[in-house]
């Protein structure tokens, strides 16, 4: 019998398997993951499960995989791909053949060179990272966070709720300016400051001070920040180094079609490791967000089964900070103006970005009920756009 193999244990892998079974795929599936955990949800790692490390975020029970004829190979990492022989080599020395292969190895947290030599230095990408950081975040713990992206700011928010004392250092003058623009980027920094997070922008870290443990960070302007724990949250890179020599084309991710199909027969890609073609942007675009990974996993499963590709949802993501949900979709970089409805000071507003008269992105803060209305605005725009 033919064999479908999935490499990776994240959301894209899980949605691929679920869709493959739901749409009629009956052959055995083998999932290979470097982690010891069966597939689990990652967004809570910087939020709910960081505050409660006993919280389970597994997608499915062990019985579900057995009932759906899915073999889990956990704690064993794929280290090379021979696409001619359709063979994977694993770190354990085991080999795995396949007829159809989904690569969904996700990404890995970036570390600033040299900063990982301290025993109290952290990154946050997987469940083990979250458990280790959770144990360190006690009331009164001073944590310095390098990077004011979503992971850094979510951890800062959770740290405040746990009674820890976070300081966020961002080299850029405005957090997430490329995504939110200057006005909302400044609002974001001010909001966190008002919630008890010290936010320092426009200056980089020149040195970490200490021996076995980091004791302080020295900023480029001479400021010294004492700390008990250090978190490096400067983004992630796709986990694709193991594919060198495989024949796959890689440029900031595995280049693939919108349905995940690569140029190598029998190989698909999805999730953070993939860079699918975007007809909207007329280029390959890697999207490091939950809904994108889910949609790509589903699309790849349908493609493997020879079913029509369904257009993915509008690019979107969400974040929870200080008890408030932020929901965003679209690409603000295409905009020339922004319209805001509501009150920034109370973190209760909607923002819509426009290019001319066309909405290209939206953000809802503290207004979850606004999402259907905002999505309808984009749906109507797409429907009324001449083809």
Outline the fold blueprint:
Blueprint: E1 4-7, H1 11-22, E2 29-33, H2 48-51, H3 62-67, E3 70-74, E4 78-82, E5 87-90, E6 95-97, E7 100-103, E8 107-109, E9 121-122, H4 127-136, E10 142-146, H5 150-161, E11 165-170, H6 177-194, E12 198-201, E13 205-210, E14 214-219, E15 224-226, E16 229-232, E17 236-238, E18 254-256, E19 267-269, E20 274-278, E21 283-284, H7 290-304, E22 316-321, E23 324-330, E24 337-343, E25 348-355, E26 358-365, H8 371-384
Parallel strand pairs: 1-2, 1-7, 2-3, 7-19, 9-16, 10-11, 10-16, 11-12, 18-20
Antiparallel strand pairs: 4-5, 5-6, 8-17, 13-14, 14-15, 20-21, 22-23, 23-26, 24-25, 25-26
State the strand order across the main sheet: 3-2-1-7-19
Count of separate DSSP helical elements: 8
Mean pLDDT: 91
The level 1 CATH classification of the largest domain is Alpha Beta
Oligomeric description of these chains: single chain
Q: What name does the CATH topology of the largest domain carry?
A: FAD/NAD(P)-binding domain
Number of strands: 26
Termini, distance in Å? 45 Å
The backbone outline, from C-alpha atoms, is globular
Question: Which second-level CATH architecture of the largest domain applies?
Answer: 3-Layer(bba) Sandwich
State the share of residues found in helices, binned by percent. Answer: 10-25%
Radius of gyration: 22 Å
| Number of domains as seen in the coordinates | 3
Q: Which parts are unreliable, with pLDDT below 50 for 5 consecutive residues or more? A: 382-387
Q: Determine the strand fraction and express it as a percent band.
A: 25-35%
Question: Structural class, judged by helices and strands?
Answer: alpha/beta
Largest sheet: 5 strands, parallel
């Amino acid at each position: 019998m033919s064999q479908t193999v999935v490499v990776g244990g994240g959301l894209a892998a899980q949605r691929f398997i679920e869709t493959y079974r739901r749409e009629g795929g009956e052959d055995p599936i083998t999932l290979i993951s470097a982690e010891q955990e069966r597939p689990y949800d990652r967004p809570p790692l910087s939020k709910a499960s960081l505050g409660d490390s006993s919280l389970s975020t597994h997608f499915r029970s062990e019985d579900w995989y057995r009932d759906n004829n899915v073999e889990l190979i956990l704690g064993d990492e794929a280290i090379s791909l021979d696409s001619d022989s359709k063979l994977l080599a694993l770190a354990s020395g085991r080999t795995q053949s396949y007829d159809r292969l989904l690569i969904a190895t996700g990404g890995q947290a970036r570390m600033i060179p040299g900063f990982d030599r301290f025993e109290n230095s952290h990154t946050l990408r997987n469940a083990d990272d979250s458990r280790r950081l959770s144990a360190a975040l006690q009331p009164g713990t001073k944590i310095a966070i390098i990077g004011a992206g979503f992971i850094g700011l979510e951890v800062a928010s959770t740290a405040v709720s746990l009674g820890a004392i976070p300081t966020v250092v961002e080299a850029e003058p405005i957090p997430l300016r490329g995504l939110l623009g200057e006005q909302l980027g400044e609002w974001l920094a001010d909001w966190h400051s008002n919630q008890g997070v010290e936010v320092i922008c426009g200056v980089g870290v020149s040195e970490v001070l200490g021996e076995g443990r980091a004791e302080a960070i020295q900023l480029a302007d001479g400021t010294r920040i004492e700390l008990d724990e250090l978190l490096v949250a400067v983004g992630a890179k796709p986990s694709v180094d193991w594919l060198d020599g495989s024949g796959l084309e890689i440029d900031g991710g595995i280049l693939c079609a919108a349905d995940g199909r690569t140029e190598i027969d029998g190989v698909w890609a999805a999730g953070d490791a993939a860079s699918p073609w975007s007809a909207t942007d007329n280029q390959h675009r890697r999207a490091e967000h939950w809904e994108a990974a889910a949609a790509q996993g589903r699309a790849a499963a349908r493609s493997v089964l020879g079913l029509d590709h369904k257009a993915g949802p509008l690019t979107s993501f969400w974040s929870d900070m200080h008890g408030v949900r932020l929901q965003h979709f679209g690409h603000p970089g295409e905009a020339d103006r922004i319209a805001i409805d509501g009150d920034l000071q109370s973190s209760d507003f909607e923002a819509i970005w426009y290019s001319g008269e066309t909405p290209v992105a939206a953000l809802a803060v503290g207004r979850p009920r606004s999402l259907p209305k905002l999505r309808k605005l984009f749906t109507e725009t797409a429907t009324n756009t001449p083809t």
